[in-house]
Amino acid sequence: MLGVENQLTNSEPDSNTLQLRLARKTPIKEWQLADVVDVIVETPETSTLRLALPNPSSFIPGQYYNIRIPVEGRPRPIQRAYSIGSSPYPDFGIIEVGVKEMVGGLVSPVLVRDTPVGSKLEVRGPYGAFNWTEEMGGPLLLVAAGSGVVPFMSMIRYAKAKNLTQPMHLLFSSKSKEYVIYGDELNKLQEETGWLKVTHTYTRDPKDPTARFHRRIDKEMLQDLLEETSPKLGYLCGPPEMVELCEVALRELGMEPGSVFSEKYD
Ligand SMILES: Cc1cc2nc3c(=O)[nH]c(=O)nc-3n(C[C@H](O)[C@H](O)[C@H](O)COP(=O)(O)OP(=O)(O)OC[C@H]3O[C@@H](n4cnc5c(N)ncnc54)[C@H](O)[C@@H]3O)c2cc1C
Asked: Which one of 3.40.50.2300, 2.170.150.40, 3.30.310.50, 2.40.30.10 gives the CATH number of domain 15-127?
């Protein structure tokens, strides 16, 4: 896997990590001041921020940036990790992050409710080994809950931009239709491409026919999708409990642990 540089996400690097970086001679990335050039309200609790970077770097679909903001009463800015939702191809100078508001959180409510177009944000990246490019092949099973869909959107948009055809099956858990992030774009891509399939599950709407399932992701659901997709690779992203449940279930259903990649939003 490419891009392994910083395994610490929602905290500053400790001295051991700095020593490790020095030993590996990996460059330490600098914070830069990005311009918020657009804000797209995706759902009642999630917004996309489009960020123009003064010093852009190429990135791999699935990677993330750290964002830090000043918080009243805290001596230092507070940083959090946010996956990139945009494709690095053809242009990586403007990136998109999709942020879901965690009520009572220090950073996400500010990003979702109080960061209008024209704001500036301190960002640093890209980081992360949770990624996919065409060399890794397919078919892919992508399993997301809530904002866990963001890195998959980067992979899907990248595949579309490069006219790739590896089959991708996205299993996407949302509270209800209203809370489906990127809903219209996913529908359109599913209609336009022969390789993307999206299966929705709604956890708080037992009837809506736009979802095939109406419960949390479980082993039986994954079994159905494995039979339909026969994936070479599996990707899991979202809350730690969901990711851990899926890791165990996919192993029990016969997928090799080495072909399943996880990103936990803790
Ligand atoms: C690699 C990675 C990528 C990520 N990508 C994304 C992404 O694309 N989109 C996205 O939305 N998120 C993403 N996340 C999650 C993100 O980094 C933050 O964790 C998330 O936005 C919450 O941050 P916060 O500062 O708002 O909340 P925090 O301040 O961290 O609080 C989180 C929750 O805990 C509660 N809480 C805090 N302190 C206490 C306490 N003492 N007692 C009880 N409850 C408490 C808060 O009320 C809140 O609900 C990612 C995480 C990782 C690790």
From this structure: 2.40.30.10
